[in-house]
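Problem 3 from the worked examples.
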Amino acid sequence: MDREAELVRELELDDIIQEEDDAAGISAESIYIYKTPGQDVILPCGTASRSDSTCSIVTWFYSRDSSDTIAEVYKGNVEKTSSRAARLSLDSSCSLIINNITAEDTGLYTCRQKDDVNQELRVLTTSSSPPDADPKRDGDVTILCSLSSYNYVRCQRSNIRWVNETGAVLPGQRFRHNILRHFDCTSVLTVKRQSGHNRRYTCQFVDDQGKVRIKADYPPVFTRGKSDPGPTDSTDWPLSSVMLALRIGALILMTVITVLIIRYRCYKKPLDRDVIVRMSGDEVSYENVEPRPATTRLR
């Protein structure tokens, strides 16, 4: 692409982005999509045109906030200048695919085809403080759960919460709402870490109707040691012992059966023809007689 064509393209994009910014306050209602880091997400682009298999009339915009809009896909092609170009693609229906999402992918995505389709991606993350805490030591650790969003999101005790394995809400949670950074809604909880007691904590985001929209488990905060054998040691080891005992028992049984078969065959073996049977009273004795060569036999 020559310099003149590139300049025309940039001007077209600037005009489109300006229109997008001007219409931000009156655009169609957004669809909310909730994800956790590391997942993939597919953002539909409404009804794709069957005659446009290359998505040449499709442009995808991304707004990190209401004052910053960029084009991630222009006329069906991912912008090479995008910092996320390697993780973005379009499918056959012109839906935007984002691989291995992070909290930085939070924002408003708009597909412009015939009509604009707005979708807001919200990302729920969990972390600990300090992040480099020694997992082998007992003590207190602070775990954080944050929901990042493009627009204002209700952030109260009933909306974001930590629960235990039984689903009971854990006491002692603190809340903070950072409207300067993606409208982050964060729940902070300090828990006591104890070796050998691997507890799982789950963060939930609940909407105003009481529905859990997304949840994320905080991974174990310590490495298993001798006091906490874990699934491999506690379940696989007994199973291996049972299998070993069964194999030894089978080997012994086969040995006994083999010995009995050999003894049985010896017992059933017929006597040689040259056997002298001597009877003396109630006793019977057998005496094998070696066969004599034919030349020495009497005629």
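Problem 4, a separate protein:
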Amino acid sequence: MAEGAELIRLGGGYRFTEGPAADREGNVYFTD
């Protein structure tokens, strides 16, 4: 993470996720 960057919660309440991945545009993908 860049200095001064802020974490943002994208979701919650998931019981199992399989390796979140991000593309070049910053989109985050995962399975539930």
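Solution to problem 4. The CA atoms of residues 8 and 22 lie 14 Å apart. The two ends are 25 Å apart (CA to CA).
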